[in-house]
Amino acid sequence: MQRHLLYGTSLVAAAMLAAGGAVAQDKKMMKLSISINGGFDALIGTVLDEEWSRGGSDQTPDTTGGDVKTDAEIHFNGRATTDNGMKIHARVELEGQNDTTFTNDGSKADPIDEYFLSVSGSFGQIILGGTGGAPVKMLTGLSGSWATGVGETLSFDVNSWVPSAAGGPTHYYLQHSRLDTGDNEKVTYISPKLAGFQIGASYGPLGHNSDGDSNGRNKLDSHHDGFEVAASYGGKFGDVGFGIGAGMTSYQGADGKAEDDRSDWLVAGRLDFGGGFRVAAAHKQVTNESKAQQSQLTDVGVRYIAGANSFSLTGVMGEMDNDDRSYTAVMGSYARAMGPGVKWHLNLIHTESQADNGDENTGLILVSGLRVKF
User: Fold this and answer.
1) Is 158:349 a contact under the CB 8 Å cutoff?
2) Dihedral, CA atoms, 178, 184, 186, 189, nearest 10 degrees?
3) pLDDT tens digits along 46-96
4) C-alpha distances in angstroms, 247 versus 162, 188, 229, 230, 263?
5) What 3-state class would DSSP assign to 10?
6) Phi, psi of 146 (to 5 degrees)
7) In terms of C-beta density within 10 A (0-12 exposed, 13-18 middle, 19 or more buried), how is residue 167 classed?
8) Where do the H-state alpha helices sit in the chain?
9) What's the CA dihedral at 333, 337, 338, 341 to 10 degrees?
10) Closest to 78 (Cα-Cα) out of 132, 37, 28
11) How many CB atoms lie within 10 A of CB 214?
12) DSSP annotation string for 306-335
């Protein structure tokens, strides 16, 4: 079934590429172009206060104090237009730091982030490769802090300054507000917008958060056969623009482990008022039936833009339904555009987290950065 689905999708894509070629030879094709872009975020910050509580006793934290961090990526793009008007986009993203990062077994980590080939036209868009699925591509711009934040990324960047007491494996449950199955290889279809409506779907042989090639995958060891769907609608009501959407992921559990099938869902919405004012919210539920784990996560944000100045207040709150693990983070951000592609931002972040054994960690962080996009 999986092989037939992948073969069928490839045949459909090939047919669309070839369609109209014989009757469109007189059309001028766009010359293949190569471009390089990306970004660099240079940060300097300090943990103003951190309080670990283990077993009811305060612990001296190791992370309190100043630090310097960077986040850099280089994107290689190839673009072309076929003789029948379809647009081709190939992209490979190179991480700026992973050349010096080692995994637990001593080997170097993969320096490549996302990589994909996109074919788009009047039929919509087909994407093949290691990249986020339909819910990520369609709902991120509607979701809470993702749609409103002007500084650091609330779902990812807080842990690099103050770690969560709830533990790393709970990141997707309690902190990460996108419905994201990782950059595992998949095929995605996103429809054109029709009267404001849009739908999308993805299929990946590998399961949740499993990056890399699907060759040699072992269903006994990992999730597999993941499906993702999303739908959105946007428009205007008077002077107010709005967008709403929902998505779901479903994938089979590892056959050789005590894991069950998983299905997660997310709803999101955004309102754009006049004068540069925006509000957005998202709610995600994650379920792992075999481990009796279920979590609820809510992400909200508000943004205001006045000329070169931008302000945002965002917050995320997650909790496990079956134990006492929880996570809360609130961030106020200011950003100023200093020129084309150059932005300075300042962030004040408060975070609280609790483990299932009652251990707690709270922190107050001040971070400033200069972000360059080229």
Assistant:
1) yes
2) 20
3) 999 988 887 666 666 655 678 899 989 999 999 999 988 999 999 999 988
4) 30, 14, 6, 4, 11
5) helix
6) -65, -35
7) middle
8) 2-18, 134-139, 144-148, 171-174
9) 110
10) 37
11) 16
12) ETTEEEEEEEEEEEESSSS-EEEEEEEEEE
Among the listed residues 372, 374, 341, 371, the one whose alpha carbon sits nearest the alpha carbon of residue 43: 371
Residue that wins the pLDDT comparison between 46 and 220: 46
Q: What letter represents residue 96's amino acid? A: G
- Give whole-number Cα distances, 311 to 33, 152, 267, 314, in Å: 37, 12, 25, 10
The pair of three-digit structure tokens given for residue 207, joined into one six-digit string: 């399961």
Q: How many CA atoms lie within 13 Å of 193's alpha carbon, on the beta-carbon side?
A: 8
Q: Decide if 195 contacts 134 (C-beta within 8 A).
A: no
Which tokens sit at 193? 């917008």
CA nearest to 254, candidates 221, 217, 214: 221
Angle 41-177-241 from CA coordinates, rounded to 5°:
90
Least Cα distance to 230 among 262, 205, 267, 277 occurs for 267
Q: Check pLDDT > 80 for residue 356.
A: yes
Residue in the block written with tokens 């943990």: 47
Structure tokens at 13: 């894509």
**Side chain identity, residue 215:** N
